[in-house]
Amino acid sequence: MALSNKKNIVALDTNILFSISQYKIDIFDEIERLLGKTNFVITEAIDAELDKLSKKNKKEVNIAREVIAKKNVKKVKTESKIADTSLVELAKQGYIIATADKALKKRIKDYGGTLIYLRQKKYLEMDN
């Protein structure tokens, strides 16, 4: 998927998708509150990770899959087949990354990427 302006394209990590059911947060409204009109993507590696977690985290995965379909979240291909590394790859290309993973946040910050992350399990905040 080639999207020309990556300024308002947010790549979603698995754990931020899980926060929808775990903390009852509408991440899409929250992100659009921060950025305005936004396009959302997941990587093929995130999609595969959801498949892998579907037995252990059935409720979270089902809700994530529902909102991915409802919000027309696009799937993008990356070189990496590892979920976190695929998001770092997108951060290097200028995508905004939404995650609740501390280690991933550090990796993306180290590359100067823009982050959206969970605060106090209640709302999302942006860091760039």
| CATH homologous group name | 5'-nuclease
Q: Sheet bearing the most strands, described? A: 6 strands, mixed
CATH class: Alpha Beta
Strand percent estimate:
15-25%
SSE order, as H and E? Answer: EHHEHHEHEHEE
> Whole-Å distance between the termini?
24 Å
Q: Averaged pLDDT, please?
A: 93
- For the secondary structure, the number of strands is 6
Number of helices: 6
* Poorly predicted residue ranges: none
What layout of secondary structure does this protein have?
Layout: E1 9-12, H1 14-23, H2 27-35, E2 39-43, H3 44-53, H4 58-70, E3 74-76, H5 83-92, E4 96-99, H6 102-110, E5 114-119, E6 123-127
Parallel strand pairs: 1-2, 1-4, 2-3, 4-5
Antiparallel strand pairs: 5-6
